[in-house]
Structures are given as structure tokens and as C-alpha cells.
Amino acid sequence: MDSLGAFLKSRRDRVTPAAIGLRTYGSARRVPGLRREELAQLAGVSAGYYTRLEQGQAETASEQVLGALARVLQLDRVETVHLHNLARQAAAPGLSEPGTEQPHPRVLALLESLGEATPALVFGRRGDVLAWNRTGHALTAEHVAFDAPRDPARRPSIPRMFFLDPLTRDLHRNWSELAPIHVAYLRLTAGRYPTDARLAELIGELTMRSDEFAAMWATGDVADCTVGTMNLRHPTVGAVSVDYQVWLQPDSPDHRLEIYTPNDPGSADALRILTQQSGGAEPPVRTCAAGRSTVSRAPSG
User: Fold this and answer.
1) Could you report the per-residue pLDDT of 51-79, keeping only the tens digit for each?
2) Architecture label for domain 105-295
3) What share of the chain is helix, strand, coil (3-state, %, to 5)?
């Protein structure tokens, strides 16, 4: 899992004096980024206090201090949220076994309302597939049993599949682009749920079994994962390019409904074939102003 001190150091190493207008007068530097003393001065705290923060010896950090550190370290919105999450961990107990995740009925209702016209998956907090429609299953993991998400012991883990399953890796033509996003989002989740024993086990397993995951985790990057593009090499329908977007429900922020829409006419045709082969109704087609055909999306409610 992550710690406040490790995150602060990784971000401090990335901020050069020149980036924030700090003059160094040509002196030799033994650190890649800011020195602790420099960061402390710019954030308006004592060097001793900041050192204790980075070494995990300070009990608390105020909202004002965290805000100042985020400003000097040039953190974006997601990194700032992660910083605050980590700062709250000092008072948190040790790891505990979480309960079995169950998708919220509203999320399942939204998934059902999409029908089979739009591939869709429901993810839990650790990236486990809690539910999917048949087209979503056919698009992303047709080599996995369709009913696997119904059994908590058999639920597909997207992070595990992404780094440990050769078929999943071969499926994604832009794997090297997507993989760091998966790792950065897992770090964000770890900051939100520092006591989740299963999440810690997942991160530990991936670190031990995948050198690529370990290298990406060591960067300290943190990011949300809400929109993006997946370029697939599908074993049944060939090349497919889809955009993914995540819908969140306020009542169940841990559960993410991810839907996929085609980026070009060929991908739209491929999704129609998958829909028919998986037993769903063929999705309607509409023509955009630019003249390309896309699959229409069912209303969300």
C-alpha cells in the first residue's frame, strides 16, 4: 500500500527548482527535485516538521498545510485528493477483511436498461467484475465464463487479468498505454481504502508476479480512470476501437458502470456481430453529422 511520506517524496523528486522559479545559484545538487528544506520553506512550514511528515513521524497535517504542499508540488486534482486520503491514514487501524461486494440495485437497473446494444461492465472497488451484459462479456473477456461474476470466489479481477493473463494482454493493442492508468487508479483506490486487506493482497500479488506492474507502481503515479480509448485485437471480430466511460452512482461510489461505444464504422459493425452472437438484439444504428455510423445507446433512465 502507499504512505504519505512515500508519496510526498515521489512528488518532491519531480519538481525541479526551475519549474517553480527557485534560484539555485549553480550549486551542486544531490537530489533530482526539491530539497526538503526548500519545499518546507515554500509551503510555509518548518523543515523539521516537514521531515517528520515525510518520515511518518508526525501525527497529523492540517488542511492548510496539505493545501500548501499540494500547491508547491504542483499536484493536480486527483493527486491532491490522494494526498488528503493518505494524510488521514495515521489514525486508521490495521488491515481488516472487507465484506463481500454486492452491486447496488440501482447500478444493476442501469445495466439492465442498456440492454445488449451497448457493451457494459460493473466493477467493484478492487476492479472485480460484479456484473456484465453479454455483449460486454463478449467484448472484453469471452474466454471467461459468463456467470463468473455471480460467484465472489470466481469473479474476474481486471487488474490480475491485465497483468497476469496473456489472453487479456493480447486483446489490448494499446496495452502499454492503458496499463499505467490501471496502476495509477489502483493507487488512488488504495489511498481511499487503506485498511482493505484484499486490496493490499492484490497489490502485493501483482508486485511479486509482474515486473511491469512493480515498475509502474514504483513511480508513485496516481490518477482517476473515467474515460479513454481501448484499441482491441478481438479473437472473433478482429480490430475494434471503442471509447470507455464510467458512470458513478452517489449511493454506491465504489461501484462503477463502464460502457463502451465504437469509434468508427468497422468497430460498430464488430459490436453488432458480437451482440448477435451473444444472443442479444441487434443495436440500432444512427448516422452522426460527420457521416459515420455508430451504435445508439439506450437511455440511462
Assistant:
1) 998 888 876 788 999 999 999 999 999 99
2) 2-Layer Sandwich (3.30)
3) 45, 15, 40
Nearby residues of 164 by Cβ (< 8 Å), 6 or more positions away: 206, 209, 210
pTM: 0.82
Which helix (H) or strand (E) is 47 found in, with range? helix 47-54
Cβ(220)–Cβ(7) below 8 Å: yes
DSSP 34: -
* Domain ranges, ordered by start, for the chain: 4-91, 105-295
CATH topology of domain 4-91: 434 Repressor (Amino-terminal Domain) (1.10.260)
Report d(CA 174, CA 169) in Å as an integer.
9
DSSP per-residue letters across 204-246: HHHHHH-HHHHHHHHTT------EEEEEEEETTTEEEEEEEEE
Largest CA distance in the chain: 70
Residue found under cell 440492454:
115
Sign for the pseudo-dihedral over CA of 175, 177, 181, 183: positive
Cα–Cα distance, 99 to 66 (Å, whole number): 32
DSSP code of residue 32 = S
Cα separation of 238 and 222, whole Å? 32
Our CA dihedral for 287, 288, 293, 296, rounded to 10 degrees, sits at -80
Rounded to an integer, what distance in angstroms lies between the CA atom of residue 11 and that of residue 66? 13
pLDDT tens profile 246-291: 988 777 777 899 999 999 999 999 999 999 988 754 443 333 333 3
Q: Which residues lie below 8 Å from residue 301, measured CB to CB, with a gap of 6+? A: 109, 110, 113
